[in-house]
TrEMBL record:
The lineage of its organism: Bacteria, Pseudomonadati, Bacteroidota, Bacteroidia, Marinilabiliales. Pfam families: Orn_Arg_deC_N. The modification N6-(pyridoxal phosphate)lysine is found at residue 48. Specifically catalyzes the decarboxylation of meso-diaminopimelate (meso-DAP) to L-lysine. CDD domains: PLPDE_III_DapDC. Keywords: Amino-acid biosynthesis, Decarboxylase, Lyase, Lysine biosynthesis, Pyridoxal phosphate. Belongs to the Orn/Lys/Arg decarboxylase class-II family. LysA subfamily. Homodimer. Substrate binds at residues 268, 304, 308, 334, 362. InterPro entries: Ala_racemase/Decarboxylase_C, DAP_deCOOHase_LysA, De-COase2_N, De-COase2_pyr-phos_BS, Orn/DAP/Arg_de-COase, PLP-binding_barrel. Its EC number is 4.1.1.20. This is Diaminopimelate decarboxylase.
Amino acid sequence: MFNSTRIDQFKNIPTPFYYYNMELLENTLDLIKTEASRYGYHIHYAVKANANPKIMKLIQTYGFGADCVSGNEITRSLETGYTANKIVYAGVGKSDREILTALEAGIFCFNCESIPEIELINELAEQTNKTARIAIRINPNVNANTHHYITTGIEENKFGINRWEFESVLETLEQSKNIELIGLHFHIGSQITDLSVFKGLCLRINEIQEWFKERQILVNHINVGGGFGVDYKHPDENPIPDFVSFFGIFKEFLNLTPSQELHFELGRSVVAQCGSLISKVLYVKNGVNTKFAILDAGMTELLRPALYQAYHKIENISSNGEEEVYDVVGPICESSDCFGKAVSLPSTKRNDFIALRTAGAYGEAMASRYNLRDIADSVFSNEL
Ligand SMILES: *Cc1c(COP(=O)(O)O)cnc(C)c1O
Protein backbone atom coordinates (compact mmCIF):
# COMPACT_ATOMS: atom_id res chain seq x y z
CA MET A 1 0.00 0.00 0.00
CA PHE A 2 2.80 2.42 0.86
CA ASN A 3 5.84 2.37 -1.41
CA SER A 4 8.98 4.35 -0.67
CA THR A 5 7.94 7.29 -2.88
CA ARG A 6 4.72 7.59 -0.91
CA ILE A 7 6.54 7.39 2.40
CA ASP A 8 8.92 10.13 1.23
CA GLN A 9 5.89 12.31 0.43
CA PHE A 10 4.53 11.65 3.93
CA LYS A 11 7.70 13.17 5.40
CA ASN A 12 6.51 16.67 4.46
CA ILE A 13 3.07 16.33 6.04
CA PRO A 14 2.36 17.04 9.72
CA THR A 15 1.08 13.94 11.50
CA PRO A 16 -1.37 12.54 12.35
CA PHE A 17 -3.40 12.68 9.13
CA TYR A 18 -5.98 10.63 7.30
CA TYR A 19 -4.65 9.27 4.04
CA TYR A 20 -7.11 8.28 1.32
CA ASN A 21 -6.19 6.03 -1.58
CA MET A 22 -8.52 7.50 -4.18
CA GLU A 23 -7.69 4.88 -6.83
CA LEU A 24 -8.90 2.18 -4.48
CA LEU A 25 -12.04 4.16 -3.73
CA GLU A 26 -12.68 4.52 -7.47
CA ASN A 27 -12.14 0.81 -8.07
CA THR A 28 -14.55 0.03 -5.26
CA LEU A 29 -17.15 2.42 -6.64
CA ASP A 30 -16.71 0.98 -10.15
CA LEU A 31 -17.50 -2.50 -8.87
CA ILE A 32 -20.50 -1.33 -6.84
CA LYS A 33 -21.86 0.55 -9.82
CA THR A 34 -21.40 -2.36 -12.23
CA GLU A 35 -22.95 -4.91 -9.92
CA ALA A 36 -25.84 -2.72 -8.75
CA SER A 37 -26.71 -1.67 -12.31
CA ARG A 38 -26.92 -5.31 -13.33
CA TYR A 39 -30.14 -5.53 -11.30
CA GLY A 40 -31.24 -1.88 -11.36
CA TYR A 41 -30.51 -1.44 -7.65
CA HIS A 42 -30.31 2.06 -6.16
CA ILE A 43 -27.31 2.92 -3.99
CA HIS A 44 -27.35 5.58 -1.30
CA TYR A 45 -24.03 6.34 0.30
CA ALA A 46 -24.29 6.34 4.11
CA VAL A 47 -22.76 9.73 4.80
CA LYS A 48 -22.04 9.07 8.46
CA ALA A 49 -19.25 6.65 7.49
CA ASN A 50 -17.18 9.50 6.06
CA ALA A 51 -18.53 12.98 5.39
CA ASN A 52 -15.30 14.41 3.97
CA PRO A 53 -16.45 16.64 1.08
CA LYS A 54 -13.88 15.27 -1.41
CA ILE A 55 -14.88 11.70 -0.67
CA MET A 56 -18.56 12.59 -0.85
CA LYS A 57 -18.13 14.42 -4.15
CA LEU A 58 -16.33 11.52 -5.77
CA ILE A 59 -19.02 9.06 -4.66
CA GLN A 60 -21.72 11.37 -5.98
CA THR A 61 -20.18 11.34 -9.46
CA TYR A 62 -21.14 7.67 -9.69
CA GLY A 63 -24.80 8.71 -9.59
CA PHE A 64 -25.40 7.41 -6.08
CA GLY A 65 -27.75 9.01 -3.60
CA ALA A 66 -27.12 9.82 0.05
CA ASP A 67 -28.33 8.17 3.22
CA CYS A 68 -28.39 10.74 6.01
CA VAL A 69 -28.95 10.53 9.74
CA SER A 70 -29.03 14.24 10.58
CA GLY A 71 -30.10 17.56 9.15
CA ASN A 72 -26.49 18.62 8.75
CA GLU A 73 -25.76 15.49 6.73
CA ILE A 74 -28.62 16.46 4.42
CA THR A 75 -27.12 19.92 4.05
CA ARG A 76 -23.64 18.48 3.42
CA SER A 77 -25.06 16.09 0.81
CA LEU A 78 -26.77 18.91 -1.06
CA GLU A 79 -23.56 20.97 -0.91
CA THR A 80 -21.51 18.12 -2.35
CA GLY A 81 -23.79 17.58 -5.33
CA TYR A 82 -26.30 14.94 -4.27
CA THR A 83 -29.76 15.65 -5.57
CA ALA A 84 -32.60 15.87 -3.04
CA ASN A 85 -34.59 13.22 -4.88
CA LYS A 86 -31.90 10.66 -4.04
CA ILE A 87 -31.60 11.52 -0.34
CA VAL A 88 -33.06 9.26 2.33
CA TYR A 89 -33.13 10.21 5.98
CA ALA A 90 -33.15 7.84 8.97
CA GLY A 91 -32.66 8.30 12.72
CA VAL A 92 -34.66 7.65 15.89
CA GLY A 93 -34.40 11.24 17.08
CA LYS A 94 -35.13 13.58 14.20
CA SER A 95 -35.60 17.08 15.62
CA ASP A 96 -38.24 19.53 14.40
CA ARG A 97 -35.57 21.61 12.77
CA GLU A 98 -34.01 18.63 11.00
CA ILE A 99 -37.39 17.51 9.69
CA LEU A 100 -38.01 21.02 8.37
CA THR A 101 -34.60 20.97 6.64
CA ALA A 102 -35.55 17.73 4.94
CA LEU A 103 -39.03 18.95 3.96
CA GLU A 104 -37.58 22.18 2.62
CA ALA A 105 -35.06 20.27 0.49
CA GLY A 106 -37.77 17.88 -0.73
CA ILE A 107 -35.83 14.71 0.01
CA PHE A 108 -36.83 11.40 -1.54
CA CYS A 109 -37.85 9.65 1.66
CA PHE A 110 -37.92 9.81 5.46
CA ASN A 111 -37.19 6.45 7.04
CA CYS A 112 -39.49 6.68 10.06
CA GLU A 113 -38.67 4.94 13.28
CA SER A 114 -41.71 5.53 15.51
CA ILE A 115 -45.37 6.54 15.55
CA PRO A 116 -44.76 9.87 17.33
CA GLU A 117 -42.17 10.69 14.65
CA ILE A 118 -44.69 10.02 11.86
CA GLU A 119 -47.18 12.27 13.66
CA LEU A 120 -44.64 15.09 13.95
CA ILE A 121 -43.56 14.82 10.30
CA ASN A 122 -47.22 14.97 9.28
CA GLU A 123 -47.79 18.04 11.43
CA LEU A 124 -44.72 19.88 10.09
CA ALA A 125 -45.54 18.89 6.51
CA GLU A 126 -49.05 20.25 6.96
CA GLN A 127 -47.70 23.54 8.34
CA THR A 128 -45.39 23.94 5.36
CA ASN A 129 -47.89 22.71 2.77
CA LYS A 130 -45.86 19.71 1.77
CA THR A 131 -46.33 16.00 1.47
CA ALA A 132 -43.63 13.88 3.04
CA ARG A 133 -42.77 10.57 1.44
CA ILE A 134 -41.94 8.03 4.10
CA ALA A 135 -40.80 4.47 4.49
CA ILE A 136 -41.36 2.73 7.77
CA ARG A 137 -38.17 1.45 9.26
CA ILE A 138 -39.06 -2.00 10.41
CA ASN A 139 -37.15 -3.85 13.07
CA PRO A 140 -37.08 -7.30 11.45
CA ASN A 141 -35.70 -9.02 14.54
CA VAL A 142 -32.78 -10.48 12.61
CA ASN A 143 -29.55 -10.82 14.57
CA ALA A 144 -26.64 -9.45 12.59
CA ASN A 145 -24.12 -11.54 14.57
CA THR A 146 -21.87 -8.55 14.89
CA HIS A 147 -20.65 -6.51 17.87
CA HIS A 148 -23.62 -5.72 20.16
CA TYR A 149 -22.92 -1.99 19.89
CA ILE A 150 -23.48 -2.14 16.14
CA THR A 151 -26.46 -4.49 16.09
CA THR A 152 -29.61 -2.56 15.26
CA GLY A 153 -32.19 -5.05 14.01
CA ILE A 154 -33.29 -7.02 17.05
CA GLU A 155 -36.34 -6.25 19.14
CA GLU A 156 -34.55 -4.78 22.14
CA ASN A 157 -32.76 -2.14 20.01
CA LYS A 158 -33.99 1.45 19.95
CA PHE A 159 -34.15 1.38 16.15
CA GLY A 160 -37.17 0.80 13.96
CA ILE A 161 -40.78 -0.20 14.47
CA ASN A 162 -41.59 -3.66 15.82
CA ARG A 163 -44.05 -6.05 14.31
CA TRP A 164 -46.68 -5.72 17.03
CA GLU A 165 -46.92 -2.00 16.23
CA PHE A 166 -47.78 -2.38 12.53
CA GLU A 167 -51.55 -2.08 13.06
CA SER A 168 -51.18 1.19 14.98
CA VAL A 169 -48.80 2.52 12.34
CA LEU A 170 -51.41 1.89 9.66
CA GLU A 171 -54.02 3.68 11.78
CA THR A 172 -51.67 6.63 12.20
CA LEU A 173 -51.04 6.72 8.46
CA GLU A 174 -54.81 6.75 7.80
CA GLN A 175 -55.01 10.01 9.71
CA SER A 176 -51.84 11.55 8.30
CA LYS A 177 -52.96 13.47 5.27
CA ASN A 178 -49.56 14.99 4.51
CA ILE A 179 -47.75 11.68 4.46
CA GLU A 180 -47.38 9.25 1.63
CA LEU A 181 -46.14 5.76 2.47
CA ILE A 182 -43.79 4.69 -0.32
CA GLY A 183 -41.55 2.07 1.22
CA LEU A 184 -40.34 -0.35 3.82
CA HIS A 185 -36.89 0.14 5.26
CA PHE A 186 -34.56 -2.22 7.12
CA HIS A 187 -31.07 -1.86 8.52
CA ILE A 188 -29.93 -4.59 10.86
CA GLY A 189 -26.42 -3.58 11.87
CA SER A 190 -22.92 -3.03 10.64
CA GLN A 191 -19.74 -4.95 9.82
CA ILE A 192 -21.74 -8.02 8.79
CA THR A 193 -19.40 -10.44 7.03
CA ASP A 194 -21.60 -13.54 7.14
CA LEU A 195 -23.73 -13.30 3.99
CA SER A 196 -26.27 -15.78 5.40
CA VAL A 197 -27.39 -12.96 7.71
CA PHE A 198 -28.52 -11.03 4.62
CA LYS A 199 -30.25 -14.12 3.30
CA GLY A 200 -32.12 -14.29 6.63
CA LEU A 201 -33.06 -10.63 6.21
CA CYS A 202 -34.45 -11.32 2.71
CA LEU A 203 -36.60 -14.18 3.96
CA ARG A 204 -37.92 -12.06 6.81
CA ILE A 205 -38.74 -9.21 4.42
CA ASN A 206 -40.65 -11.68 2.23
CA GLU A 207 -42.81 -12.61 5.25
CA ILE A 208 -43.33 -8.99 6.24
CA GLN A 209 -44.32 -8.11 2.67
CA GLU A 210 -46.97 -10.86 2.83
CA TRP A 211 -48.45 -9.23 5.92
CA PHE A 212 -48.75 -5.92 4.08
CA LYS A 213 -50.05 -7.57 0.91
CA GLU A 214 -52.87 -9.19 2.89
CA ARG A 215 -53.90 -5.69 3.84
CA GLN A 216 -53.71 -4.47 0.22
CA ILE A 217 -50.69 -2.34 0.93
CA LEU A 218 -48.12 -2.36 -1.84
CA VAL A 219 -45.13 -0.06 -1.60
CA ASN A 220 -42.81 0.57 -4.51
CA HIS A 221 -39.59 0.86 -2.53
CA ILE A 222 -37.79 -1.69 -0.41
CA ASN A 223 -34.68 -0.40 1.31
CA VAL A 224 -32.42 -3.01 2.89
CA GLY A 225 -29.98 -0.56 4.48
CA GLY A 226 -26.26 -1.19 4.66
CA GLY A 227 -24.09 -3.14 7.03
CA PHE A 228 -21.89 -5.09 4.63
CA GLY A 229 -18.57 -5.74 6.36
CA VAL A 230 -14.95 -5.40 5.31
CA ASP A 231 -11.82 -7.45 6.04
CA TYR A 232 -10.05 -5.52 8.80
CA LYS A 233 -7.49 -8.32 9.24
CA HIS A 234 -6.36 -8.46 5.60
CA PRO A 235 -6.75 -5.05 3.97
CA ASP A 236 -4.20 -5.80 1.23
CA GLU A 237 -5.54 -9.25 0.34
CA ASN A 238 -9.19 -8.08 0.35
CA PRO A 239 -9.21 -4.39 -0.48
CA ILE A 240 -12.66 -4.52 -2.11
CA PRO A 241 -15.61 -6.33 -0.51
CA ASP A 242 -17.32 -9.04 -2.55
CA PHE A 243 -20.20 -7.00 -3.93
CA VAL A 244 -20.87 -9.68 -6.55
CA SER A 245 -21.99 -12.11 -3.85
CA PHE A 246 -23.59 -9.41 -1.73
CA PHE A 247 -25.99 -8.12 -4.41
CA GLY A 248 -26.40 -11.70 -5.65
CA ILE A 249 -27.94 -12.73 -2.31
CA PHE A 250 -30.68 -10.12 -2.63
CA LYS A 251 -31.30 -11.04 -6.25
CA GLU A 252 -31.67 -14.67 -5.29
CA PHE A 253 -33.68 -14.50 -2.06
CA LEU A 254 -35.70 -11.30 -1.99
CA ASN A 255 -39.14 -11.43 -3.64
CA LEU A 256 -39.94 -8.19 -5.40
CA THR A 257 -42.89 -7.35 -7.64
CA PRO A 258 -42.03 -5.88 -11.06
CA SER A 259 -42.91 -2.39 -9.82
CA GLN A 260 -40.74 -2.59 -6.72
CA GLU A 261 -37.31 -0.98 -6.60
CA LEU A 262 -34.55 -2.06 -4.25
CA HIS A 263 -32.40 0.44 -2.36
CA PHE A 264 -29.17 0.00 -0.42
CA GLU A 265 -27.43 2.29 2.06
CA LEU A 266 -23.76 1.38 1.93
CA GLY A 267 -21.28 3.09 4.21
CA ARG A 268 -18.37 1.10 5.57
CA SER A 269 -18.09 -1.23 2.58
CA VAL A 270 -17.57 1.78 0.28
CA VAL A 271 -14.95 3.79 2.15
CA ALA A 272 -13.32 1.72 4.91
CA GLN A 273 -10.41 0.22 2.98
CA CYS A 274 -9.36 3.36 1.11
CA GLY A 275 -8.40 5.15 4.32
CA SER A 276 -5.48 4.87 6.72
CA LEU A 277 -4.65 6.95 9.72
CA ILE A 278 -0.99 7.87 9.44
CA SER A 279 0.78 8.64 12.66
CA LYS A 280 4.30 8.96 14.02
CA VAL A 281 5.84 7.27 17.01
CA LEU A 282 6.53 9.84 19.71
CA TYR A 283 8.22 7.57 22.22
CA VAL A 284 8.99 3.95 22.88
CA LYS A 285 8.55 3.46 26.59
CA ASN A 286 9.40 0.43 28.68
CA GLY A 287 6.54 -0.78 30.83
CA VAL A 288 6.54 -3.53 33.46
CA ASN A 289 5.99 -6.47 31.15
CA THR A 290 5.69 -4.70 27.89
CA LYS A 291 7.02 -1.99 25.63
CA PHE A 292 4.68 0.82 24.66
CA ALA A 293 4.82 2.46 21.27
CA ILE A 294 3.24 5.84 21.99
CA LEU A 295 1.79 7.46 18.85
CA ASP A 296 0.86 11.03 18.08
CA ALA A 297 -2.60 9.76 17.04
CA GLY A 298 -5.15 8.48 19.51
CA MET A 299 -8.81 7.80 20.10
CA THR A 300 -9.55 11.37 19.04
CA GLU A 301 -8.55 10.44 15.47
CA LEU A 302 -9.71 6.81 15.47
CA LEU A 303 -12.28 5.99 18.11
CA ARG A 304 -13.32 2.50 17.06
CA PRO A 305 -10.81 0.51 19.13
CA ALA A 306 -11.76 2.43 22.31
CA LEU A 307 -15.48 2.42 21.51
CA TYR A 308 -16.02 -1.17 20.41
CA GLN A 309 -12.75 -2.95 20.93
CA ALA A 310 -12.44 -2.86 17.16
CA TYR A 311 -9.38 -4.30 15.45
CA HIS A 312 -7.37 -2.20 13.01
CA LYS A 313 -4.27 -3.58 11.37
CA ILE A 314 -1.23 -1.67 12.61
CA GLU A 315 1.85 -1.37 10.39
CA ASN A 316 5.21 0.25 10.94
CA ILE A 317 5.89 1.46 7.38
CA SER A 318 9.31 2.93 8.20
CA SER A 319 11.16 -0.04 9.67
CA ASN A 320 12.47 -3.34 8.34
CA GLY A 321 13.95 -4.39 11.67
CA GLU A 322 13.47 -7.58 13.68
CA GLU A 323 9.94 -8.18 14.88
CA GLU A 324 9.23 -7.13 18.45
CA VAL A 325 6.08 -6.90 20.52
CA TYR A 326 4.47 -3.57 21.49
CA ASP A 327 1.35 -2.19 23.06
CA VAL A 328 0.43 0.54 20.61
CA VAL A 329 -1.23 3.45 22.39
CA GLY A 330 -2.25 7.06 21.82
CA PRO A 331 -1.49 10.20 23.85
CA ILE A 332 -5.00 10.76 25.25
CA CYS A 333 -5.61 10.67 28.99
CA GLU A 334 -7.75 7.52 28.93
CA SER A 335 -6.62 3.93 29.39
CA SER A 336 -8.95 2.86 26.59
CA ASP A 337 -6.80 4.96 24.24
CA CYS A 338 -5.05 1.87 22.98
CA PHE A 339 -4.92 0.71 19.34
CA GLY A 340 -3.61 -2.78 20.03
CA LYS A 341 -2.01 -4.91 22.72
CA ALA A 342 0.94 -7.23 22.07
CA VAL A 343 1.23 -6.15 18.45
CA SER A 344 4.14 -7.59 16.53
CA LEU A 345 5.96 -4.83 14.64
CA PRO A 346 9.40 -4.48 13.12
CA SER A 347 11.71 -2.86 15.66
CA THR A 348 10.15 0.54 16.29
CA LYS A 349 11.70 3.87 17.21
CA ARG A 350 10.78 7.53 17.57
CA ASN A 351 9.52 9.18 14.33
CA ASP A 352 8.69 5.93 12.56
CA PHE A 353 5.47 6.14 10.54
CA ILE A 354 2.67 3.91 11.81
CA ALA A 355 -0.30 3.21 9.53
CA LEU A 356 -3.61 2.23 11.11
CA ARG A 357 -5.36 0.55 8.22
CA THR A 358 -9.00 0.34 7.16
CA ALA A 359 -9.71 3.70 8.77
CA GLY A 360 -11.74 5.24 5.92
CA ALA A 361 -15.07 4.52 7.59
CA TYR A 362 -15.99 5.82 11.04
CA GLY A 363 -12.47 7.24 11.43
CA GLU A 364 -12.38 10.89 10.42
CA ALA A 365 -16.16 10.94 10.85
CA MET A 366 -15.86 10.18 14.57
CA ALA A 367 -12.95 12.55 15.27
CA SER A 368 -13.32 14.63 18.40
CA ARG A 369 -11.57 17.55 20.01
CA TYR A 370 -11.26 15.83 23.39
CA ASN A 371 -8.17 17.12 25.26
CA LEU A 372 -8.55 20.14 22.93
CA ARG A 373 -6.75 18.28 20.19
CA ASP A 374 -6.62 19.64 16.68
CA ILE A 375 -8.73 17.88 14.06
CA ALA A 376 -6.32 15.99 11.81
CA ASP A 377 -5.99 16.87 8.14
CA SER A 378 -6.95 14.63 5.28
CA VAL A 379 -4.56 13.83 2.44
CA PHE A 380 -5.58 12.36 -0.92
CA SER A 381 -3.43 10.09 -3.05
CA ASN A 382 -4.39 11.92 -6.24
CA GLU A 383 -3.21 15.26 -4.84
CA LEU A 384 0.29 14.21 -3.74
C1 LIG B 1 -25.04 3.49 9.61
C2 LIG B 1 -26.17 3.21 8.71
C3 LIG B 1 -25.95 2.68 7.45
C4 LIG B 1 -24.57 2.29 6.94
O1 LIG B 1 -24.05 1.22 7.62
P1 LIG B 1 -22.67 0.57 7.13
O2 LIG B 1 -22.47 -0.55 8.08
O3 LIG B 1 -21.62 1.61 7.26
O4 LIG B 1 -22.86 0.12 5.73
C5 LIG B 1 -27.04 2.47 6.63
N1 LIG B 1 -28.29 2.79 7.03
C6 LIG B 1 -28.53 3.32 8.25
C7 LIG B 1 -29.92 3.65 8.61
C8 LIG B 1 -27.50 3.54 9.12
O5 LIG B 1 -27.75 4.06 10.32
